[in-house]
Write a structure and sequence with these properties.
25% strand; 388 residues; 27% helix; four-stranded antiparallel beta sheet; antiviral defense; 8 helices; 19 strands; CRISPR-assoc_prot_TM1795; 2 domains
């Protein structure tokens, strides 16, 4: 029997539903952590197995399925320094509020969250017979969670960022936390050597996973994790937003003129709401679906979503990582993959029945260069390129 223990520090507000969701009492539960571990297992396994059927076979063996139990038990221990912040906290940071859409509304939190700086340990007790390769894959998944990911709602937008602080195999420490941006860069590159990303197939994966097409940068460093998150949110808002009408111009929430980099997206939806024929979807759909619009001038909404799927999560992962001396680094990761299943269309519709507009279905034409261009923003001129 082998035991793997990974200790994580919570770096940014963590919005997580507890066992009783109606009471909105956040807590860290084993099923949620197991789900995260499964996600990152798939991400790290693909470069090593190269095909989804091979990954699925390994996943079934380790995590269990209807045909059999998991090869390990998982518990969440040593939860410390966790403080629950109730609903209704006012946030005066436009970037953080933008990234927190869904858990933050009009500058106020609408769900409770766990305050940063708490820590917890994920403990895996592996059954006899688990191979060394499978143990290595589980350890890689634990590392990926603590280098690129987070827990809870809006985790891909940087909330609930988790920094791996300790990793023990049968009580022996195997992890040396990065102390600065340079060592974080080195740790991530070493991790990529472990999973063989440079030897993986060149094509875009069928699902969200590490591949040669991935892009990872350490965009900024600073002394305030939440401020870093807010700065990325403001930069994303500058890049994506058409702005709100104010006199003869359009402005961002803090009064800055909107760049309107995607005016064409605005025009597509406006044409749809005006009853004109459209044949393409907004370019910003690549950031994830659903993608919502509101036209203040006509008080009308529109939604861009998959025809047969509820949502498609963003391929862009924002992660804030803890360094030494109260320092933090912002890590942005792009994991391109098949956006929607082949043949699936993107729907544009108006939820207001009074508008009498029928949904329009267009073929998906996803351009990951839209997100690549975000990496090149002036705010990230000092970035460290980790991969490629």
């Amino acid at each position: 029997m082998k035991i793997v223990e990974a200790t994580y520090q919570v770096i940014t507000p963590l919005f997580l539903g507890g066992a009783n969701v109606e009471e909105k009492n956040p807590e860290l539960r084993p099923p949620a952590l197991k789900g995260l571990l499964r996600f990152w297992f798939r991400a790290v396994a693909l470069p090593q197995f190269n095909t989804w059927p091979a990954v699925w076979e390994a996943e079934r063996s380790l995590f269990g399925s209807t045909a059999g139990q998991a090869s390990f038990s998982l518990s969440v221990n040593n939860q410390s320094k966790f403080t629950v912040v109730p609903v209704g906290e006012q946030w005066h940071k436009h970037g953080a509020a933008y990234l927190g859409y869904g858990v933050v509304d009009k500058g106020k939190t609408v769900r409770p969250y766990l305050k940063p700086d708490g820590s917890f340990t994920v403990r895996l007790v592996l059954k006899k017979g688990v191979s060394e390769q499978d143990i290595a894959l589980l350890i890689q998944a634990l590392k990926a969670l603590g280098l690129f990911g987070g827990a809870g709602a809006r985790s891909r937008k940087g909330f609930g960022s988790l920094s791996l602080k300790s990793l023990r195999l049968n009580g022996r420490e195997t992890w040396c936390p990065p102390t600065d941006a340079a060592s974080l860069c080195q740790v991530i590159r070493e991790f990529f050597r472990e999973i063989g990303i440079d030897r993986a197939r060149e094509e875009i994966p069928a699902y969200t996973a590490f591949s040669p097409k991935a892009r990872i940068c350490i965009t900024q460093t600073g002394r305030d994790a939440f401020q870093l998150l807010d700065e990325i949110g403001k930069e994303l808002l500058r890049y994506r937003s058409y702005g709100r009408s104010k006199g003869d111009k359009h402005v961002l929430p803090w009064g800055e003129d909107a760049e309107q980099n995607f005016a064409g997206d605005h025009d597509i939806i406006q044409e749809y709401l005006n009853g004109r024929r459209i044949t393409r979807h907004p370019r910003r759909a690549v950031f994830g679906l659903p993608h919502n619009y509101f036209f203040q001038s006509i008080k009308q909404k529109a939604a861009v979503e998959a025809k047969n799927y509820t949502r498609r999560a963003s391929p862009l992962f924002i992660h804030i990582h803890a360094l030494d001396r109260n320092g933090y680094a912002a890590v942005m990761t792009l994991l391109p993959a098949a956006f929607l299943p082949e043949g699936e269309q993107i729907a544009i519709n108006c939820p207001d029945r009074r508008a009498r507009l029928q949904p329009v279905y267009v073929d998906q034409d996803i351009d990951y260069e839209v997100i690549n261009c975000f990496f090149e923003r002036p705010a990230f001129n000092a970035k460290r390129v980790v991969w490629p």
